[in-house]
């Protein structure tokens, strides 16, 4: 049986897919629909709809509060999507974060499964074992 967090994530993703890629939801209404506390909705949004995963989230709290989730589209916003990824990386990136980005590239049909496997192998901790730990993940000129 799927966990409640997974069900909420699937529901929100379906809403996003059924629209133009942007939804506005009420935290309390969604919590009532899933018979859970609003903090469960917050948890799902905070962990599953991150910038790393290709989403912009805007939230306004209070009585008339809402959560607006927008999926970044590669099609007509390709440059924006790439800038979104670059900006969310910062100066370094972990293996886990690299794999999240690679999975997003697959989801957006930017790369094939085969290319993803190669990128994951190249960014794995095992592949970088010869690089000193303090130098891993640091972007800079290649010498």
UniProtKB/TrEMBL annotation:
Pfam entry (one): CtsR
Keywords, sorted A to Z: DNA-binding, Repressor, Transcription, Transcription regulation
Residue ranges of every copy of the CtsR C-terminal dimerization domain listed in the record: 79-135
Keyword Transmembrane: no
GO biological process: regulation of DNA-templated transcription
Residues covered by the CtsR N-terminal HTH domain: 3-72
InterPro entries for the chain: CtsR, CtsR_C, CtsR_C_sf, CtsR_N, CtsR_N_sf
GO MF, one annotated term: DNA binding
Organism domain of life: Bacteria
Assigned protein family: Belongs to the CtsR family.
Protein name, entry field: Transcriptional regulator CtsR
Gene source species: Acetivibrio straminisolvens JCM 21531
High-level lineage: Bacteria, Bacillati, Bacillota, Clostridia, Eubacteriales
